[in-house]
Design brief:
This protein has eight helices and twelve strands. By secondary structure, the protein is an alpha/beta fold. A hairpin with a 4-residue loop joins strand 11 and strand 12.
Length: about 290
Amino acid sequence: MTPDHPAQLGLWGDSPAREAAQDTLATCPTHEQLAMAHFRHPQAEREIVLGKAVVAYAVQRARRRSIGMVVGVEGLTVRAPRWVAWADIETALRAKERWICKKLSEQRERAHRQQAARIEWCEGVSVPFLGESVVVVLEPGLRTPILRDGHATQAGLPGAAQRALHIGLPHASPPESIRDAVLAWMRQHARSHFSARVQHYAERLQVRVTRIALSSARTRWGSSSVDGSIRLHWRLIHFSPTIIDYVVAHELAHLHEMNHSPRFWAVVRSVMPEYEHAREQLRHVILPE
């Protein structure tokens, strides 16, 4: 069956939900309706009520055998065969109602956290470093960046940065220059910090590491090869030492077991008994931008 005419876009199709929606259009929204969450894909073609959420979703008709669903940053996308009726799509959506709503909520929460993690690159900005906040101070004439303690404007207050990173730039420097200088310093520090932690865990696991390289991969925090080379995402330096240690231990454990079998996790646990907590934290971290 082909999609409905564009004039009908945004309706739910021939179902009781559609009739109920038409009845409520003529009246003022109730408190319950106002309390419902709304999720709208930018290319939304259809709309449906799932639990306590109104979900407007995009539809991709394709030559495929089954109905697929993808929840991404923009929202819900449904991929369906050209011949599938809208009523069948709605039935499939309701069958996955809890999963869809959960993933949409997670994506929204992640988007909010990403927005909160955005950095306005200027003097006095706080930047996460090894799980703590560091204040950026511009100090013209300084040859190399210096990390100093006790330079918070209100030392001792909860959440106040206790350290300051002094960068040798003029006070009127553009944001790009401040960003590049700070991240270059962090990248350099990441190399030394990671090297020390790799050596620590390599000795405990009795593995031989031939090379340590920094990575900027978009989808992986680390990787290892059978030849003993290790790659670690340099921006791990933003996170707590525990998270960094987990990634290091994880990659070095692969030098024993190139898989994620129970034997592999036993190797990780042998040097990091509470690795599950760090692994869970890593799943939810947001990189500052």
